[in-house]
Amino acid sequence: MYIRINSYKDINNIILVSKIVHKVLNYIYKFIKPGISTGEIDYICYNKIVNYYKAYPASLGYMNYPKSICTSINDIVCHGIPRYDEFLKDGDIINIDISICKNNYYSDASKMYLVGNVKRKYINLCKVTKRSLLKSLKHIKPGNKLNLIGNSIQNYIDKFGYSVVREYCGHGIGKKLHEDPFILHYKNNYNISFKEGMIFTVEPMINIGSYKTKIMKDGWTVKTIDKSFSAQYEYTVLVTNNGYKILK
Ligand code: MF3
Ligand code: CO
To answer: Whose CA is nearest to atom 12 of ligand 1?
Structure first.
């Protein structure tokens, strides 16, 4: 395994593209309402990324993925493909995942949006998922082991009776969308240490029910096996000399 350490120039470029990712995530907030289709949300993002930010949606064409973003509603865990015949409805929760390439540098982030009036139990799922991510990041500093992230997420999530998805993980990022190392979100013994200048994503997917997932016939859409709802937040993170920085 080769873990790239980013130079000052690399870091500045990845910060620049990370800011674009978060600007787009913030920009679409006002469109997330009952009645809009995920296809339209994708189109709005494509337009903003390409024509306004002069950047490229890294998902588009990645292993033949057909769209610019991933839109994962309710029991969809990740990699939901936007469609013009899939409409948001009152009470839905949706993850929007945006990966962008600019100047040959990549960044990746996602967050949950509530559609209209959402049940308390689903709001809680989203809140706990975000908190599990933020708490886990506090373990990041040079010398500490990578597995502190997964251990922290699972310890926190277990208290709520939720489960942590195992098949999909965080990843190094920067000059490619996916680089070494993999970041597991569940308890593990991965014996590698953080080093200053590493950049990777942390992106826990948390289910109300079983952690098990299945892939739909479209070859991408991942759902929970028991139809329980799932939430995800994702940040691209830099290891600094004494801790970490969320790039956004
Ligand atoms: N953004 C997702 C990740 O975290 C995957 C994007 S690639 C896609 O790695 F093809 F699945 F969209
Ligand atoms: Co990612």
So the answer is: 59
Q: How many helices and strands (H and E) does the chain possess?
A: 4, 15
CB atoms within 10 A of CB 150: 25
Global pTM? 0.98
Distance 132 CA to ligand 2 centre (A): 16
CA of 132 to the centre of ligand 1 (A): 21
Beta strands 199-202 and 205-207: pairing type? unpaired
Q: Can you tell me the distance from the alpha carbon of 195 to that of 193, in angstroms, rounded to the nearest whole number?
A: 6
41-51 confidence digits (pLDDT tens): 999 999 999 99
Q: Which tens digit of pLDDT belongs to each residue from 115-171? A: 999 999 999 999 999 999 999 999 999 999 999 999 999 999 999 999 999 999 999
CATH 3.40.50.10490 describes domain 8-246: no
Atom 7 (ligand 1): residue with closest C-alpha?
A: 59
59 within ligand 1 shell (Cβ under 6 A): yes
* Cα–Cα dist 224/229, whole Å: 7
The 10s digit of each residue's pLDDT in 180-231 is 999 999 999 999 999 999 999 999 999 999 999 999 999 999 999 999 999 9
Where do the structural domains in the chain lie, given as residue ranges?
8-246
What is the chain's mean pLDDT, rounded? 98
203 CB less than 6 Å from ligand 1? yes
Report how far ligand 1's centroid is from the alpha carbon of 99 (Å): 7
